[in-house]
Amino acid sequence: MAALIEEGDILARGDVRDLLVVEGGAFVFCDWPRFEAQYRCVLVLDEGEDAFLTLVLATAFPRLVPLWKVEVLGERRLGIVLRALARLAGCATVSVGVRS
Prior knowledge:
The two termini are 26 Å apart. Helices cover 53% and strands 8% of the residues. It contains five helices and two strands, in the order ααββααα. By secondary structure, the protein is mainly α. The chain is globular. It has a two-stranded antiparallel ribbon. Helix 2 (14-20) crosses helix 3 and helix 4 (47-60) runs parallel beside helix 5.
């Protein structure tokens, strides 16, 4: 979730929130299994958005992910994915910046 919040653009989309966020009475939660199972069928994604979501979801649901997907991320999204991987490894102090 932190990677999606940091990236901002994808989570700002209503169709993404509708698929990910479940509101019921007094609670709100993210339905990650439903999102992972349906995001490619329900959402219209460009190549970079698809690559970003694939890599971010792989941090929550470990699976094989083709590393060629990083080629289409761009520097900003690559930095976000690298920070998410560092957090997954328990390294909260890793700084991955974007070159100017």
